[in-house]
Each structure stands twice: as structure tokens, then as C-alpha cells.
Amino acid sequence: MNPVYTIYGALGSGSVPVEATLTLLGQPHAVVEAPTWEGEAQQAKVAGVNPLRQIPALVTPAGETITESAAILIWLADTHPEARLAPSLDSPLRAQFLRWMVFVPASIYSLFWVRDDPSRLAGPDPEVQARVKAATAERIADCWAMMESQITPGRYLLGDEMTVLDLYVAVVSRWGPRRRRFHDVAPRMGEVVRRVDADPRLAAFWAERFPFVEGWEENGAGGA
What we know:
Layout: E1 5-9, H1 16-25, E2 29-33, H2 40-47, E3 57-59, E4 65-67, H3 69-79, H4 94-108, H5 112-115, H6 119-122, H7 126-150, H8 164-172, H9 178-185, H10 187-197, H11 203-209
Parallel strand pairs: 1-2
Antiparallel strand pairs: 1-3, 3-4
Helix pairs in contact: 1-3, 1-8, 4-8, 8-10, 9-10
């Protein structure tokens, strides 16, 4: 039995909230760097644990493989209830926690499969690809705005305690169309993710795994 968690992931990717969670939990973990969007060699690193060749994938100390970022985050939080990174099963906040933990990947994260390579659906025409990328950016902004209209944040999205939902949104909101647009459509949620960005427990982690480089909040052709 491996005494540590193993994460298949990459800098700035969907593995980052999982890595951040393990950091807050104080759980030893190793990262297998596998930016699968770079081609078959990187995808091959993941194939043995996830036939879809996608990250993140987590191998637990017991040898169990878990894929899908939301599932991993919920499982980690529930497995370590003492850290209070998710509402308990009997908490009145539990239903909304599950609602938004599923909403983020279903409505937003999933669109990056298209945005990362618009030709997957748009074909080879650059103009069609550009329209797809613009349309998905608008859809992402609309989804964040809808979420903003449906929650009443405290210090964090579900109240006064940080959960894995806060970590999830803090990372996904940094992808295209990036944080400037996110702050425009979801200003109250924006205050929360700024608080997560500034959490001193994660300062060294962010610097290593998703650094705040100059201009990172702006829209950009090079963004996801």
C-alpha cells in the first residue's frame, strides 16, 4: 500500500483544487505531472488510471482510483470531516453544497474540453472555431452570473467556513474568460475567491502550482 496520495495533474489545471485540498488537510501526496493537452506522450501517463486520458485522477493510499474533480473533492472532504471542508451530511447547507459542486463541472468545466481545442466540434475552419470560443466564453460568464444570483455568500460561498467549493471556484474562475469577466458578472463571489487567493495557508502552494503572474486576470487569446 502506498502511504501517500498520488495525483495525476498539471500546473494550473483541474488537479490544482485537489492538490490545494490535500495541502490544507496536511496529507502527503505526490503529483505525476501530466499536461494531457500536450499530446499522446502525456496522455499515456494517465491512461493506466483513467481510460479517458484526462486529469485529474487520484490514487488513494489504499490503491483506489478516483476520477472527476468534483467527486475527488467531495470524497476528500467527507473522508476528513475534522477539517470541515464540506458541510456534514445532516447540515442544512449540504444540499446546496452538492448542487454547486455538480454545477461547476457540468455547466462550466466541461466547456473547456471544447475551448482547449475548438476543432473538436467546429472542424478546421478558423472562423467557426473563433465563434465557438466566443460562444463558450459567453456561456461560462452566464453560468457564473446565474450562480451569483442564487447564493448569498458570507466570508465564503456557503457561509463563514471555507469548503472545497471555494477552492474549486477559485481555480476554475481563473480560466478563460478569466477573472476580469468573472468579477464583472459575479462580484460577490469575486470577493470570496480573492479571500481564497490570499489565504496564508496556501500562499506557497499558489506560487508553485498556479502562480499569480502579471496580467493573469485579463482576457487573453492564450488563456484557456
